[in-house]
């Protein structure tokens, strides 16, 4: 097992409390910023209220400072022993295809995962439909990609 | 001479809530990252949680199984944090008027898209952009542009809310 997939029993006792504290701030921020309301996101996408630019701006700025501090000045994280790294994902056409599909979904619903959880917290129970849709979508892509990779493997074996 | 657009037209609800709310979102991410070196995204929760109920190897990779418990805690605390806000600011009980098919169908596409595209508004948008990661910047520009076009098409078709 890799260092980045540490089993439960080795976890620092403050790990989950810190995640909970971070999640509370995260959810409070999503509520205060009004991003937990699909209508506010749709107003932004329809150029009726550009406030969401400030949410994405200050959010990534504050997180960016933490990433810069961690990567440049700290050795390893106190609760996991992991070394600090920027969030880098490899680029391939899935990044573009996924961005397009997510964009269509976001434009239709005004809802993204974090904001959907927060929306439930402000009592917006119809958002359960969106969360159910997200689970169905995540499940469907898992089935489809498994099927596709099995077919690719079969095709590779059968090719002369 | 009148300006072409006024501040009030661009930001009819002001900016402080957006700016402060965004900073708190960033602060939550920053706290988790500085303590654990984990860039916390919100959408991995779907795959990691599906590992409880599905035998599909795709959902049972080590990184999902190892993180599924704390991801449940993270998600529940996002719900709780928003509830604290809503009660504190007298905003609790607000419900959306967006149609059911937009929530369900749009949610489905969000579920597909964030998983294929390796992240969402928090993973790519907050953590990835904060990391000045080229992959995330491309993904964010893509979903932002496509979402704007989609929402404007729906609006022009008279779909509201």
Structure description:
- The complex is a heterodimer of chains A (160) and B (161).
- In chain A, helix 5 (113-121) packs antiparallel against helix 6 (127-158).
- The model of chain A has no long low-confidence stretch (mean pLDDT 92).
- Chain A has helices spanning 15-32, 38-45, 52-73, 93-109, 113-121, 127-158.
- With 160 residues, chain A is mainly α.
- Chain A has one domain (8-159).
- Chain B is an all-alpha fold and 161 residues long.
- Chain B has two domains: 1-94, no CATH class; 96-161, no CATH class.
- Chain B has seven helices and no strands.
- Chain B has helices at 7-10, 16-36, 44-53, 62-88, 100-116, 121-130, 134-156.
- In chain B, helix 3 (44-53) crosses helix 4 and helix 6 packs across helix 7.
- Chain B starts with 6 loop residues before the first helix and ends in a 5-residue tail after the last helix.
- The model of chain B has no long low-confidence stretch (mean pLDDT 96).
- At the A-B interface, helix 1, helix 2, helix 3, helix 4 and helix 5 of A face helix 2, helix 3, helix 4, helix 5 and helix 6 of B.
What's the short story on this structure?
With 160 residues, chain A is mostly helical. Chain A has six helices and no strands.
Q: State which percent range the strand residues of chain B make up.
A: under 5%
Structural class of chain B: mainly alpha
Radius of gyration of chain B: 18 Å
Give the largest interface: A-B, 125 and 127 residues
> What's the total helix number of chain A?
6
What are the low-pLDDT stretches of chain B, counting only 5+ consecutive residues below 50? none
Main sheet characteristics of chain A:
none
Terminal-residue CA separation of chain B? 36 Å
Number of domains of chain A: 1
Radius of gyration of chain A over all CA atoms, rounded: 20 Å
User: Which percent bin holds the helix content of chain B?
Assistant: 55-70%
Beta-strand percent range of chain A: under 5%
Largest sheet of chain B: none
Q: Low-confidence segments of chain A, ≥5 residues, pLDDT <50?
A: none
Order of helices and strands of chain B: HHHHHHH
Pfam family, one (chain A): DUF6691
Transmembrane segments (chain A): 12-32, 52-74, 95-116, 122-140
Protein name (chain A): YeeE/YedE family protein
Keywords (chain A): Membrane, Transmembrane, Transmembrane helix
């Amino acid at each position: 097992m890799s260092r980045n997939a540490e089993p439960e029993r080795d976890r620092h006792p403050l790990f989950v409390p810190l995640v909970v504290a971070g999640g509370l701030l995260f959810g409070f921020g999503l509520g205060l910023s009004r991003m937990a309301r699909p209508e506010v996101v749709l107003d932004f996408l329809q150029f009726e209220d550009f406030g969401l630019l400030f949410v994405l701006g200050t959010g990534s700025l504050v997180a960016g400072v933490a990433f810069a501090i961690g990567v440049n000045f700290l050795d390893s994280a106190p609760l996991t022993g992991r070394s600090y790294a920027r969030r880098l994902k490899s680029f391939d056409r899935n990044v573009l295809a996924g961005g397009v599909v997510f964009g269509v979904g976001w434009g239709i619903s005004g809802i993204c995962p974090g904001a959907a959880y927060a929306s439930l917290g402000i009592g917006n129970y119809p958002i359960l439909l969106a969360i159910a849709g997200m689970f169905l979508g995540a499940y469907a892509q898992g089935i489809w990609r498994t099927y596709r990779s099995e077919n690719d493997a079969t095709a590779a074996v059968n090719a002369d | 001479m009148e300006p072409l657009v006024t501040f009030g037209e661009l930001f009819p609800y002001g900016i402080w809530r957006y700016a402060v709310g965004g900073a708190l979102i960033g602060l939550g991410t920053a706290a988790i990252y500085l303590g654990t070196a984990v860039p916390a995204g919100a959408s991995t929760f779907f795959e990691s949680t599906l590992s409880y109920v599905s035998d599909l190897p795709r959902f049972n990779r080590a990184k999902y199984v190892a993180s599924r418990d704390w991801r449940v805690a993270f998600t529940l605390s996002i719900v709780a944090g928003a509830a604290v806000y809503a009660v504190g600011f007298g905003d609790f009980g607000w419900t959306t008027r967006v149609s059911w098919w937009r929530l369900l169908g749009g949610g489905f596409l969000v579920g597909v898209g964030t998983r294929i595209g390796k992240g969402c508004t928090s993973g790519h948008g907050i953590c990835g952009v904060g990391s000045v990661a080229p992959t995330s910047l491309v993904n964010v520009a893509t979903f932002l542009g496509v979402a704007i076009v989609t929402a404007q098409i729906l609006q022009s078709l008279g779909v509201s809310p």
